[in-house]
Amino acid sequence: MGQPPCVLMKEKQASGNFMLFLAAVIFPSLMQLHEGINEVEDKKQKAICLERYRRRDEDQKTVISEIDDNIEEECGICMEINSKVVLPTCSHAMCIKCYRDWRSRSQSCPFCRDSLKRVNSADLWIYTDNKDIIDVATVRRENLRRLFMYIDKLPTVIPESVFDVYDSHVK
């Protein structure tokens, strides 16, 4: 019929020890294994997503860069593709026709409202293409070369008396 109480007690104690063994040793090992598997899966999923989105981003960047090139070439006011002038005070660009039209009506930049009172037409920068922009060192070398060419072409002027003899004893 039933088992004696001491056998039941030993079985209960053995099952308690087994549960303690499960909780102390096996469960943490299973959790580490589960986390490791999840981590590997997460890395795989991240790699797949990064590749997928990187390709999509590259495709979008090429489309956006083509659009940006067209936008950079067109005037911000009339939206026509013309050579542009750049305002020296704020560096905003527009075509010369729009600049003249705007300047006849207002003394401020049409984009940021910066004052244009002291800006003359000679102060404007002409911007025609990205390839036309040169670094400052190149511009400086070119300017020095032009200066020296100009100086070389100047006529030589020699004064009649290079040295005035000054004699303190002569009166």
From TrEMBL:
Superkingdom of source: Eukaryota
Alphabetically ordered keywords of this record: Metal-binding, Zinc, Zinc-finger
Xref: Gene3D superfamilies: Zinc/RING finger domain, C3HC4 (zinc finger) (3.30.40.10)
GO molecular-function terms, A-Z: zinc ion binding
Keyword Isomerase: no
Alphabetical list of SMART domains matching this protein: RING
TM segment ranges: none
InterPro entries: Znf_RING, Znf_RING/FYVE/PHD, Znf_RING_CS
Domain RING-type: 75-113
Pfam family, one: zf-C3HC4_3
Protein name: RING-type domain-containing protein
